[in-house]
Amino acid sequence: MAYVDHAFSISDEDIMIGTSYTVNNKPPVKEIALAVSLLVFGFLSIIIGSLMAYNHVGGDTAHGLFFAILGMLLFIPGFYYTRIAYYAYKGYKGFSFSNIPPV
């Protein structure tokens, strides 16, 4: 019979037996609201900035491009954290509300 060293093996059963704490996986409301607002305002800024740049509304093309770039800077983190919150809510493996940083 072969010798098996279980000292360095990690399984789900070992983790569940050895811990006595409960995982608090409540959705962080303020953080999710911030992520959704960044997503919405970023999307609107991209659309409005593109229209401003194309139609020369509110100044020259540079103002519209600046507004669109500012919208992209808002949209990217908003989309990222909204996606994490959605996947954590749906229960996808590897996604948790703890992945969203506190405000």
TrEMBL record:
The keyword Transmembrane helix applies. Involved in trafficking and recycling of synaptic vesicles. It is a multi-pass membrane protein. Keywords: Cytoplasmic vesicle, Endosome, Golgi apparatus, Membrane, Synapse, Transmembrane, Transmembrane helix. Belongs to the TMEM134/TMEM230 family. It is found in: Cytoplasmic vesicle, Autophagosome; Cytoplasmic vesicle, Secretory vesicle, Synaptic vesicle; Early endosome; Golgi apparatus, trans-Golgi network. The keyword Membrane applies. The chain crosses the membrane at residues 32-53, 65-89. This is Transmembrane protein 230. GO terms for cellular component: autophagosome; early endosome; endomembrane system; Golgi apparatus; late endosome; membrane; recycling endosome. Its main location: cytoplasm. InterPro entries: TMEM230, TMEM_230/134. It comes from the Eukaryota.
